[in-house]
Predict the 3D structure of the following.
Amino acid sequence: MTRLFGLIGKTLTHSFSKKYFSAKYEKEGITNCVYELFPLASIDDFPKLLHSSPNLCGLNVTIPYKQAIIPFLDELDKEAALVGAVNTIQFKEGKLIGYNTDVFGFEQSLKKFVGKKKLKGALILGTGGAAKAVSYVLKKMTIPYSFISRNKEKGDFLYEEINKNILQRFPLIINTTPLGTFPKVQSSPNLPYQLMTENNMLYDLVYNPEKTVFLAQGKMQGASTINGLKMLELQAEKAWSIWNNKSQGIATHL
């Protein structure tokens, strides 16, 4: 029987996941696996997907369902429980087990991006599921951080409050929002890019397009930049190892 894997989210036209896994299957000579995209208008449609696809063996989860998916799962990996967000689901012995491989992907790619620099602070743009994984890693790396949001109740700062002093205090700026994602490539977080310097480092979790407006504007001020492609590749490989029982965490019953 063909093993079915896939990605759930609301809008998936930007995703490289199907192309990535399909290329992986071809490269490794895997002939019994298929990866598909499953756009869901609502997370409440998730049970219908399960019913219509009995050969599902694993799923990735993207915006905006990384938190909303949790009530539909039977167990959570210890790290996913601590983060409070899931981006990978393993189907095992009739149970759905949630993991967060964004943590691995972000941590490994950030360490390479930062190198030996000692960062005194980071700004996290957005407060969704991806932001939870990012804040978990920053805490683990003992990098102080603050959340930026359009809603004062959700963040530490509003976008319009960002000034030169804040950009100096928090030189690393991480975009976890979908702003700038294909096809809306002209959008970007509302920041005073003209106040950035070569001391700032911009990390965009968006990977399509390769260079977002967020990254391009930071680059114009001399800032170092990186997109989310390496994180995607790392978290995808981690997900694959989980689906094939090569890497298991300790699950927490919900």
Q: What stands out?
A: The helical segments are 17-27, 46-52, 78-83, 102-114, 129-140, 164-169, 213-220, 229-243.
